[in-house]
Amino acid sequence: MTADPEQARVSHRQRLRAVRALRDSAREGRLSDVTFLHRLRVVIDARRRRDLDAAVGDLPPAGLWARAELAFQGWWDRTFGPRPAAAQLDLRLPPAPGRYVIGRDFACDLRLTHDSVSRRHAMLTSVDGQWMVVDLGSTNGTRVNGWRLQVQTPLRPGDQLDLGLQRLRVVA
């Protein structure tokens, strides 16, 4: 009778590999600080392999996406030259709570015309009086203060919201 690998106890080496995967994903901006700390706690408390898989199973191999993104950016710059960044715009948060979609599509609540913005790029929602932003699977990603979004993230006045190459500054 063989033991189920998911039921096997976690070794120190497996735990260290999981911590490195979390660290690398956080460095690449794929995890927010809160998500990183939550998952780190899960890894530290893990007793079985399935617990580790729950914490890091959805992460890409360390450095893979960063290397691919740098390779693509290098190819793009060599072929077409650097992509021009859009001018920075001020984003005034709506006075009424609700859901507001940001993107290039005419049906979006906030329409941005820069080529790097997806048709349905991100969504603003009001949760208990706090404005949150979530990426809607955009091609070029959404960043708040330089950190790539993976989960719903709060917005505060003064934050920089990057949708592709379009930068928005959140104002009160």
Q: What report would you give on this structure?
A:
This is Peptide-binding protein. Residues 100-149 form the FHA domain. Keywords: Phosphoprotein. The chain is α+β, with helices and mostly antiparallel strands and 172 residues long. It folds into two domains: 12-66, no CATH class; 88-170, Tumour Suppressor Smad4 (Sandwich). It contains four helices and ten strands. A five-stranded mixed sheet has the order 1-10-9-6-7, with no helix packed on it. A five-stranded mixed sheet has the order 3-2-4-5-8, with no helix packed on it. A hairpin with a 2-residue loop joins β4 (122-127) and β5. α1 (12-27) runs antiparallel to α2. The model has no long low-confidence stretch (mean pLDDT 83).
The arrangement of helices and strands along the chain is HHHHEEEEEEEEEE
- The class by helix and strand makeup works out as alpha+beta
The global form is globular
As for the CATH topology of the largest domain, it is Tumour Suppressor Smad4
Portion of residues within helices:
25-40%
The largest sheet, given as strand count, sense and whether it forms a barrel, is: 5 strands, mixed
Number of strands: 10
**N- to C-terminal distance:** 64 Å
Low-confidence stretches: none
What is the subunit organization of this protein? single chain
With strands numbered from the N-terminus, the spatial order across the biggest sheet is 1-10-9-6-7
Q: Please give the domain count.
A: 2
> What percentage of amino acids are in beta strands?
15-25%
Provide a count of the helices.
4
Pfam families: DUF1707, FHA
Protein name: Peptide-binding protein
Keywords: Phosphoprotein
InterPro entries: Cell_Proc_Reg/RNA_Proc (IPR050923), DUF1707_SHOCT-like (IPR012551), FHA_dom (IPR000253), SMAD_FHA_dom_sf (IPR008984)
